[in-house]
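Repro case for the chain-ordering regression, as requested:
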Amino acid sequence: MFTEEEKKALYKVIYKRRDIRTFQPTPIPEESIYNLLNAAHHAPSVGFMQPWNFIMITSQAVKERLAWAADKERRALAIHYEEQEAKQSHFLNLKIEGIKESPLTICVTCDPTRGGSHVLGRNSIPETDQLSTACAIQNMWLAACVEGLALGWVSFYKKQDVRDILEIPPHIDPVALLTIGYTDEYPDKPILETSKWEDRKKLNPLIYKNKWGENESL
Amino acid sequence: MFTEEEKKALYKVIYKRRDIRTFQPTPIPEESIYNLLNAAHHAPSVGFMQPWNFIMITSQAVKERLAWAADKERRALAIHYEEQEAKQSHFLNLKIEGIKESPLTICVTCDPTRGGSHVLGRNSIPETDQLSTACAIQNMWLAACVEGLALGWVSFYKKQDVRDILEIPPHIDPVALLTIGYTDEYPDKPILETSKWEDRKKLNPLIYKNKWGENESL
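-- result from build under test --
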């Protein structure tokens, strides 16, 4: 069903995808935006509930308010590193979001009420609705990569601030703010790896056989 | 960076990927298994925490116990449809897992303690560790698809049963049981769509502009 070339293409995009925080203001073609959203919409979802919505933010005024919410959270979090001075200054020097610069921010939400009271599978594990939404985000991210676009997942905010700014009802979960645009810098390695914040772990020790803790080597 | 063919290949796999519940016993080549795990390991993760482990279940005895845990949950859930007789019999006729038939089940777990006490981003939104794990699962699913393999995400179980069976520590989250193998039946549409359990939603009404509820047409 898939050729050797198609297989290589998938692995190429999976390995090349990066989380980007620096954007050019160049507008994004409508076709690319549609491809991103349609890729997200074809993610798997528990009980086929498709719990996602996509709020497309292009208004500069709205972006300024979201950037304020993220910056406020960044400054609050920096306080938790106050006992490790080097780590705190490292943290404060990381660029953690590009909401104001990127031409488009998408707020991806999850509606836990979609599909009614007894969604297949979600009845056992309620957070599968959020996990489905994360699968949609991953599809969108891979799509952005092949479209030549950079994407950054911003996870610094209080959900209630984002609900207030985007007028999102209280039961809806604003799972992610995704900043999207073209970029000059698409690094080979994750920014947090290059900046020595964290290393990529070796795969083998993460694999167990038939039970937790029993190492398997592949 | 990506050719038109590579772009098409990604969208093909995103659109063709299905959730499968019927498997052949044929063993899976080691190389394909490695490709699946490495794809998962290259998912994005909050603060680059890489919170996942992969428990590879091939023991028939362990699979029997997991299948028992899933079946017990399925029977318990059926009771919640007792007031809708048609829905209940529809539910009971759906094949919801293929743990015993598939040659391999992978339990993907999430360790919320990995990366220490103050993981970048997870400090604001704690469940981003599970969302990262879901991104890893989606990568693995797309990889399975290009490898010609079928994958089914089983979400019918009590987490404590799976912890007991696989000797998983209490703080580790068994996010998913993934059944993997070759299949005779790789349908064009989701099983829940074909069996009239749920329809695929139209994309346009899910898209809003600058705030919740404001329709955007693309």
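Ordering looks correct now. Chain A touches chain B through 106 residues (CB under 8 Å).
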